[in-house]
Design brief:
globular, 5-stranded mixed β-sheet, 3-stranded antiparallel β-sheet, alpha+beta
């Protein structure tokens, strides 16, 4: 044991004593194990601990212990069976200025239950509203995809940036029935960058914010407030956007609560679905995966040649599209790890291990999505692995496949996100495909709590085998 390891143990003797029996990489003074994160994404680090230390281990962020779990049994304890014994700490402090405190994503009990029940996505009319969005998304896709083809005749595009803006615009149609002006998208991007910096840089003091941030945030929320007021004054019974549906059919929120929850739809979904769509299109564009792209295009050609239109029900017929999407989310989940803190009142147990009060728990779904004991050739993109039996054994939210989380606090936007991504991919591959640049390479970044792919440059072209 080196001198820095001994110094760390000396200054953190009592905390180390409480965690005896939990293995982990030796920490050193003063950073603990933070050096492991230098140049590495956190989900790679947490997943690697499963290989070296088993289903439970401890990392030290300076003098703060982080219990890392890589086991379906422990996930079930934290997220399902004993979920009330755990609460969120991160990313509440980091993201509250951007999202606001009035949304269930960053709330804890007892407020969380009420906030979730009152959210528009929990309304009794949500399922009917969701079904109406298939036509909205498919019509938008036809128009936007054609525009992208024209754009890439002269210049390449970055898939991640493209699908982020694509998703923002599609969400604006679903939320308000119209495309938002560029200024509002710029506000979304700017506020998101601030939240991401606060989330990823532990040396940024939480109370320091650029004065311009508050002005931008005011404009951002004011825009949604005006949309809601306009709908209340002149409701449109024929509209399919969620603001009008809430006005006409009723919603349990009002004032700043309704404004915050409406605006939060964008931060709750645009980054994650943009990441997944970019990843999926990229994977299908690779030479080794051409056979999968061809199978998907053939399925869609057959479907649309029968003059079928996309509906919530007809989307279920696109079995191969579903396999492709699930495999993309398995291989590169947009949210590759989660966090909770143990109870501030009681000690909790994970297996035989007694966890101190208010200890951070890191939950590595990335590790389970790549577990070689569960998935054959887990590092390869193989849509065919998703047979009916495998889908039955690995539903969303199961022990080895939970891109949207698990349990009562799993992402409430999952039905919306899945319908949007299914419709968008079907609309895209109906007539188009992506050709990557020769030197493009898939890299992973981290933005606003989401794995954000980088370097995905190329051109969107008409598919000669399309159904047109």
């Amino acid at each position: 044991m080196g001198l820095l390891n001994k110094l760390f143990n000396f200054f953190n003797k009592s905390k180390i004593s409480e965690l005896q029996g939990i293995p982990g990489p030796p920490p050193s003074f003063p950073l603990g194990n933070l050096n492991l994160l230098f140049g590495q994404q956190p989900w790679f680090v947490t997943a690697s601990l499963a290989e070296n230390y088993g289903p439970i281990s401890v990392l030290w962020f300076a003098s703060s212990p982080q219990i890392v779990i890589n086991s379906p049994e422990f996930f079930k304890d934290v997220l399902i069976t004993d979920w009330l014994e755990y609460h969120k700490v991160s990313p509440i402090k980091e993201l509250t200025p951007t999202i606001s405190k009035y949304t269930p994503f960053i709330a804890n009990q007892p407020f969380w239950k009420q906030m979730r029940a009152n959210n528009p996505f929990s309304s009794e009319w949500f399922a009917d509203w969701l079904a109406a969005q298939v036509n909205v998304f498919s019509e938008f896709g036809e128009l936007r995809n054609s525009e992208l083809v024209e754009k890439t005749k002269s210049d390449s595009v970055d898939l991640t940036e493209t699908f982020q803006k694509y998703s923002f615009d599609a969400f604006s149609l679903a939320v308000a029935g119209k495309l938002f002006p560029t200024e509002i998208y710029d506000l979304f991007v700017s506020l998101g960058k601030t939240g991401s910096i606060r989330l990823t840089n532990p040396f940024i003091l939480s109370f320091i914010l650029n004065p311009f941030f508050y002005l931008k945030r005011k404009k951002w929320f004011k825009y949604f407030e005006n949309l809601i007021t306009s709908s209340a004054n002149s409701p449109n019974p024929l509209a399919t956007d969620i603001i009008n549906w809430g006005t006409i059919k009723g919603v349990h929120l009002a004032g700043q609560d309704l404004t915050a929850n409406t605006a939060a739809i964008f931060y709750g979904g645009v980054y994650s679905v943009g990441s997944t769509l970019a990843t999926t299109v990229w994977l299908l564009s690779q030479k080794e995966n051409k056979i999968y792209e061809e199978k998907l295009i053939h399925e869609l050609k057959t479907f649309f040649d029968k003059k079928k239109t996309l509906t919530e029900e007809s989307l279920k017929e696109l079995k191969y599209l579903e396999k492709v999407l699930r495999e993309s989310m398995r291989l590169y989940p947009a949210v590759p790890f989660y966090s909770r803190n143990s109870s501030t009142i009681n000690y909790v147990f994970l297996g035989e291990h007694k966890i101190p009060k208010n200890t951070s728990i890191l939950i590595s779904n990335y590790a389970m999505h790549h577990d070689a004991g569960h998935w054959k050739e887990p590092l390869k993109f193989i849509p065919e692995r998703w047979t009916d039996e495998v889908i039955k054994q690995n539903p969303f939210g199961s022990g080895y496949f939970f891109p949207f989380g698990q349990g009562p606090r799993a992402c409430m936007g999952q039905p919306f996100a899945l319908l949007y991504m299914r419709t968008t991919l079907a609309s895209f591959y109906k007539n188009f495909k992506f050709i990557p640049e020769a030197d493009a390479n898939y890299l992973q970044g981290f933005h606003f709590g989401v794995m954000m792919p980088k370097g995905l440059n190329g051109k969107i072209v008409f598919n000669p085998e399309s159904s047109k």
